[in-house]
UniProtKB/TrEMBL annotation:
It holds the Pfam family MarR_2. This is MarR family transcriptional regulator. GO terms for molecular function: DNA-binding transcription factor activity. SMART domains: HTH_MARR. Residues 5-139 form the HTH marR-type domain. It comes from the Bacteria. It comes from Latilactobacillus sakei.
């Protein structure tokens, strides 16, 4: 007889497998443009949500400022973002913007993701929505 805990473990395994399939796909799309999906998400926040400071990005991604700084340095080395220092007469303050190449890369990845997303079945979309809802309430 399968118990409730066994059923939950099985569902957790199935969820994890599906999540891995999704992660593999989105990373494959972004890798075509020489960025990880995580880097794409950073650029997305800079462009779409206008999170322009490292501290805003750190809060959004629930990570440390040094981790955000490493991500931004990597994106800057790829010429996808640039840093602006010294706005408002304080050299310690830094803002980031996407370069034209960063915007083009972002738009290209976004277009491919939307094409892929259109191919997903309704039950996959519903699964992702349920996972999001569950994780929001678990945290």
């Amino acid at each position: 007889m399968v118990g409730k805990a066994d059923t939950r473990m099985q569902l957790l395994g199935e969820w994890y497998s599906k999540l891995q399939q999704i992660a593999t796909k989105v990373n494959a799309i972004s890798r075509k443009y020489d960025v990880s999906f995580e880097q794409f998400l950073v650029i997305e926040q800079i462009i779409e949500e206008e999170r322009k400071s490292p501290s805003e990005l750190a809060v959004f991604f629930k990570t440390s400022l040094p981790a955000v700084s490493r991500k931004l340095n990597l994106l800057q080395s790829k010429r996808l973002v640039y840093k602006i220092r010294g706005e408002q007469d304080d050299q310690r303050l830094m803002r980031v913007n996407a370069t034209p190449e960063g915007i083009e890369t972002y738009e290209s990845i976004k277009a491919e993701l939307l094409t892929w997303d259109a191919q997903l079945k309704d039950h996959d979309i519903n699964l992702m929505a349920m996972v999001n809802h569950t994780l929001e309430h678990a945290n």
